[in-house]
Amino acid sequence: GTTLEFVNTPVEPRLTVAKTASAESLEAGETVDFTITVTNAGEGPLSDITLTDLFEGGAGELVFEDLPAGVIRNEDGSFAIAVLAPGESVEIKSAYTALEEDEGKTLTNSAEAESSGGASGGAKVSVEVEDGGRYVPPSDKPGHDTPAENAVPPMLNGEDHFAYVIGYDDGTVRPEGQITRAEVATIIFRLLDPEVRDENLTAENVFEDVGEGDWYNTAVSTLVKLGIISGRSGTSFDPDAPITRAEFATLFARFDESGTEPAGGFSDLSGHWARESVGRAAALGWIDGYEDGSFRPDNRITRAEAMTMVNRVLNRNPAEEEDLLPDMRVWSDNQPGSWYYFAVQEATNSHEYTRPDSHEDWTKLTEDPDWDRYQ
């Protein structure tokens, strides 16, 4: 008879890692997007993959998007990928907004992955931060460009100083991070005059990417009904997209009923779709530009810049440590001396206050509203 002999040929595990950046260089205030792609390039499954992502050269924080299914972030900052079938890939996306302190430096982002079977791979990408004009932070003088007697737009709640920004579970508030369209809609929804909010409250919209179960659905739906916010198209809102400085200024300019004439002066707004709205917000003292005379309308606005503008619109303006209270919420990444310190504290603490002069004085910390009831 014939004897058949079977030989087991081991399948060699193979793991590849690719790292890309959306730009080769950028200026302070601009954002670069990073993407890590981990691929099982072998013929057998890979499991228990550990991915480390090292970011060097930047003074700020790398912000990660929501992770794909099957990927979790460990306490040490690494990522765990449960399993990858042959040919399967996962993408992990992050973004970094360059700071003034980064000018003239090189940002380096490197990633390495290893599976339990010994397969490994790595990749690195570098981005240059150019020297350039610096953002002009708000003056720390009380009432800078926005005296307390300025009227708050009537559709907004300037009387109650509730916390409208929620920090992260790790004790940070990420002032230099980006802010998404869904987050901005939620903030504005919380800042509406209560009667305006209740009279226009709705959870119905035409967007395919804003569903009934989404935490931002009611906020987006209500603001669309009010004509404050709109979609990227007739059926798409793009809730997870970062919002730009021009878009943010335009949203609040839509609340203004003062008839204020737009201010000129920014060097990069000629012909821009948001020129009039940005000019009006500047004339009202709500926004600042950069030292080189530009506004950089298409840069993504940082969370600190957004909170600063909101506080100016609402005349929420503590100016000294004595204006605050010792038992307030504090954040590890918002330290006294930062240009945005008071703006962030104002945005994240509910309180009662008096206004003895051109700035406010906190008198009592209060409970946050139950915003979850709208989600």
Question: Could you please describe the fold and organization of this structure?
Answer:
Residues 135-202, 203-260, 261-324 form the SLH domain. Residues 103-124, 352-375 are annotated as: Disordered. This protein has 2 domains: 15-129, Immunoglobulin-like (Sandwich); 181-374, no CATH class. The N and C termini lie far apart (74 Å). The chain has helices spanning 181-191, 194-200, 217-226, 245-253, 275-283, 303-313, 341-348; strands at residues 15-21, 25-26, 31-40, 46-56, 63-64, 71-73, 79-84, 89-97, 106-114, 120-129, 351-354, 361-365. The model is unreliable at 139-149 (pLDDT under 50). It is α+β, with helices and mostly antiparallel strands. Helix 4 (245-253) packs across helix 5, helix 4 packs parallel to helix 6 (303-313) and helix 6 crosses helix 7.
